[in-house]
Amino acid sequence: MKYAYAGFHRFISHKDRLYFICDATLDAATQAEWAEDVLKRANVQFDNGRWSHEAAGEILDKAEATLLNYLVVTA
């Protein structure tokens, strides 16, 4: 997870955007990083029949939606 500073204030930085730091954004940023890493790898099928990219895409969508609620600045 990357952090950025504006004056004395610290923010989470994700995809050139800044977000307030709180439990929701920390969790969402961690989930987004995990999902982006899964999407870079080969698509595999789980025992329950779901594909890894399908699951990661859903998690990434939810994480980015959560982060947008705490958006401060875009670079």
Write up what this structure looks like.
This protein is an alpha+beta fold. Helix content is 47%, strand content 24%. A 4-stranded antiparallel beta sheet has the order 1-2-3-4, with helices on one face. Helix 1 runs antiparallel to helix 2. The radius of gyration is 14 Å and the shape is elongated.
What are its keywords?
75 residues; alpha+beta; 47% helix
Biggest sheet: strand arrangement: 1-2-3-4
Quick one: overall form?
A: elongated
Q: Structural class, please?
A: alpha+beta
The share of residues in extended strands comes to: 15-25%
Q: Give the count of structural domains.
A: 1
Can you give the mean pLDDT? Answer: 93
Discrete helix count:
2
How far from one another are the termini?
Answer: 17 Å
Q: What is the total tally of β strands?
A: 4
Helix content: 40-55%
Based on CA atoms alone, the radius of gyration comes out at 14 Å
What is the H/E string? Answer: EEEHHE
Summarize the structure.
This protein is of the alpha+beta class and 75 residues long. It is 47% helix and 24% strand.
